[in-house]
Design a protein that fits this description.
This protein is an all-alpha fold. It is about 75% helix and about 0% strand. The relative contact order is 0.03.
């Protein structure tokens, strides 16, 4: 095999071929021995690092004597003698190697040497390296002081290493645990790492602050999950309040969650107000007064549970009920239909319940279907007089037909309305 051939090449003084075959056969100690004997120092580090710890350290000492410090440092570190590697780094001013070794240092490293490395990083403004060193040395407070003073980015691995070093939740020193967790979380908020902040506030038992951080993140899925896990009245309310800032009326799942959270929190007044907002959306966006009426009745139910006055809400429910009834009897009971519509138009603050434009539109469409163009036109003029824009409520073709039958130009009327609006502006 390769080992036998390597031995043959060594006997023939063909060192290069012998080393290659010793390496191939996994006999790295022989490869190192032969490289040293033949002054092939450049190959040593590569070969020794694949060999045993004893060979690594023996080769490291040899290379150190030869002043091949970078190779020696690498082998000392790989051979488990980081302290020795650091000493050479300082003596030979191998600062790049020093930075690399610092990441692998453990708490068993000579404290004086660790302190020296820390001083080096501080003097070179490499605060993140210094922080990691303090964490390695289990100097949690010093690490946090440095992070805060020099705005060092708090990464998740750093935060977890610090947390692992803190006293257990119920152990003595738990106040120190809470204090440090809060400091980590506060720092994360400053650095806009809201998810990590949420995690640390939660571990510190600060649910409200955890929710603050999560709300700042705007991560809706996590906010919903978090509220469900914590099951706190205040958190439910805050989550529902946040969800209301979203486009909830186009997302049934968000809408359900808002209702669910307010219900679980027994926040009846907020729930009543949300149902009120739902009714407004049904009217403004969809002209669905039946659904709006249902939402207003739900609103009243929860206002009563909250022991709040419902007189204003009752007035609005009554007006919406009347409008819904008017629409349903337009063909079957004309007189009652007209009476309801004109009463609604005369009601003070009718806009709080029903869009006046919808009442006018219902009447105008009725008179148009009856070919009573004069009455329809008078109502259009009343809309204009009240400064109600026709477009959202009336079909333009119908308006044109009414004007044509009355012998009036549509453009002239529209221009006069636009001029009066411009004057007001």
């Amino acid at each position: 095999g390769a080992y036998y051939l390597a031995s043959q090449y060594e006997a023939l003084n063909q060192a290069k071929n012998a080393i290659r075959l010793f390496e191939k056969s996994g006999r790295f100690n022989h490869a190192v021995r032969l490289a040293r004997a033949n002054g092939m120092d450049g190959e040593l580090s590569k070969l020794a690092v694949q060999s045993t710890q004893r060979v690594m350290l023996d080769t490291a000492r040899y290379l150190e004597e030869k002043k091949m410090f970078e190779h020696a440092v690498n082998l000392y570190q790989k051979g488990g003698q980081s302290s020795k590697a650091l000493e050479i780094c300082f003596e030979a001013k191998l600062f790049d190697a020093l930075r690399a070794i610092a990441d692998d240092l453990g708490s068993d490293t000579d404290p004086a040497l660790l302190s020296k490395v820390g001083d080096f990083f501080m003097s070179h403004a490499q605060y993140d390296k210094a922080v990691n060193l303090y964490i390695t040395c289990q100097k949690v407070k010093e690490a946090m002081d440095l992070c805060e003073k020099h705005k060092v980015t708090m990464t998740e691995p750093m935060a977890e290493k610090i947390t692992d070093q803190l006293p257990e939740k119920d152990a003595s020193g738990s106040d120190f645990r809470i204090q440090i967790l809060k400091r980590i979380a506060d720092l994360c908020v400053q650095q806009q790492n809201y998810h990590l902040a949420t995690k640390k506030y939660t571990q510190a038992g600060m649910k409200d602050k955890a929710m603050d951080a999560l709300l700042k993140s705007g991560d809706t899925e996590k906010i919903i999950f978090f509220a469900g896990v914590l099951r706190s009245k205040e958190i439910y309310v805050r989550a529902a309040n946040y969800l209301q800032t979203l486009n909830w009326h186009t997302d049934p799942e968000i809408m359900k969650k808002i209702i669910d959270f307010y219900t679980k929190a027994k926040a009846y007044q907020q729930l009543a107000m949300f149902y009120d907002a739902c009714s407004q959306v049904e009217i403004d966006e969809y002209r669905d007064y039946e659904k709006a009426l249902g939402a207003l009745k739900e609103s009243k139910k929860y206002m009563l549970k909250a022991d709040k006055d419902t007189s204003e809400l009752d007035r609005r429910i009554n007006m919406v009920e009347e409008f819904v009834r008017a629409r349903s009897i337009a063909k079957s009971d004309t007189q009652e239909f007209l009476k309801i519509c004109y009463q609604l138009l005369d009601q003070p603050k009718v806009d709080a319940a029903v869009q006046v434009g919808d009442v006018f539109a219902l009447l105008i469409e009725f008179y148009y279907s009856e070919e009573n163009y004069e009455q329809a036109y008078q109502l259009i003029e009343k809309m204009r007089h009240r400064r109600i824009v026709l477009g959202p409520y009336l079909d333009q073709g119908m308006v044109d037909t009414i004007h044509r039958h009355m012998g009036i130009s549509t453009a002239t009327n529209d221009d006069s309305v636009e001029e009066s609006i411009d004057e007001d502006i």
